Amino acid sequence: MGAIYKQLTLEEREKIYTLKEQGLSFRSIGQIMGRSHRTVAREFRRNRYVGQEYIPCKAQEISMKRSAKQRTKAPLKNPEVFLYVRRSLREEGWSPELIAGRLPIDINGQTIVHETIYQYIYGKGKRYHLQEYLTRSHKKRRIKTGRLVHKSQSRIPNAIMIDKRPTKTNNRSQAGHFETDLMEGPCGTRTALSVSIERKSRYSVIAKVGNKKSKTVQKVLQNTLKPLQSLSKSVKPIVRSVTSDNGLENTRHTETSDELKINWYFCNPYHSWEKGSVENRIGVIRRFIPKGTPLHIYKDKEIQNLENKLNSRPMKCLNFQTPEEVFMKEVNRYKFKHYQKSKWGTSK
User: What interhelical angle do 56-72 and 10-21 show, nearest 10?
Assistant: First the structure.
């Protein structure tokens, strides 16, 4: 018997059948054929239909069907799916849920469960260090823990708290409501990133700020949101509100509210999850700009390329559409609605 196991051929199956018909034992057949007697016994047990005798041609058919099923139906044993998963993890930085959702769109007829990808990453695929390409890059899978509840008063003057934010904003049924936050660099550095995200479409706007002073941050925010207002080309702009935390960079929020004619809402102190969309977006940005990396080394063009990459990345919460696709649909719907209203005095 060779050192490397090989599947039985049709000729071998016919020989096994002939020897068995002569009354030889599995062990004797194995010795004659140079195969393990266990291989011969397993062949008779597995490759025949229930209640029927062993037939070599039928056994060959059963074996080939089983082999094809194992190679094409098991998700990561299919070379096309495996290469798609690995490429999406390494090159696109997609999460397993994104990969599982987008796979049927990109490769017709192929599906996979995101849990299968996680099990491979933290199982047999661990030697390839694929966990490094996940959002948090944890070496082991972690269990989520509860949040510490702590409330106090906002230190921002004229702050309108998130409790007074309209229902349409909270349930994401209306476009134009943004969340914003700063992504800071290493301790002691001045440069930061202003990150804003539209709640319904998850469309992101990212810009570099030279320092974290309120005047600078608010000016950059105004410059990033104004172009979005011009997209609607109607009397009433699509940008409707901004939600932020209680950082000191937002103390001059009224200037932005007056300039853009929008409402500004503040999360409760220590409740960062109340602006979870922008927190999640910053977590994704950290995959491309890790913590501890000075932000001043990135050029504006590189930041713009990163923004484009995130906006052209499909998301599970958007039924695997991209934020740019959803946002432009909202903008076009908004323009048409206000065009009807201005022309006919009514909107449908």
Answer: 140
Three-class SS state of 277: helix
Per-residue buried b or exposed e for 147-164, using 16+ beta carbons within 10 Å of the residue's own CB: eeeeeeebebeebbbbee
Q: E strand or H helix at 343, and its extent?
A: helix 323-344
User: Residues 31-82: pLDDT tens digits?
Assistant: 998 888 888 888 888 888 777 888 888 888 888 877 766 544 455 767 888 8
pLDDT at residue number 191? 94
The half-sphere exposure of 59 on its side-chain side, counting CA atoms within 13 A, is 25
Q: Give pLDDT, residue 347.
A: 42
CA 344 to chain CA mean position, Å: 43
Give the model confidence (pLDDT) of 14-37 as tens digits.
Answer: 888 898 888 899 899 889 988 888
The CA distance from 215 to 266, in Å, is: 18
Q: 217, 239 in Cβ contact below 8 A?
A: no
Cα separation of 280 and 286, whole Å? Answer: 10
Query: Rounded to an integer, what distance in angstroms lies between the CA atom of residue 281 and that of residue 130?
Result: 21
CB atoms within 10 A of CB 209: 21
Query: Does residue 218 contact residue 296 with C-beta atoms inside 8 Å?
Result: no
- Closest C-alpha among 331, 329, 347 to residue 339: 347
User: Which segments in the chain show pLDDT lower than 50?
Assistant: 1-2, 71-73, 148-149, 232-235, 339, 342-348
Helix axes 26-33 and 37-46, enclosed angle (nearest 10): 120
- HEC states along 35-49? CCHHHHHHHHHHCCC
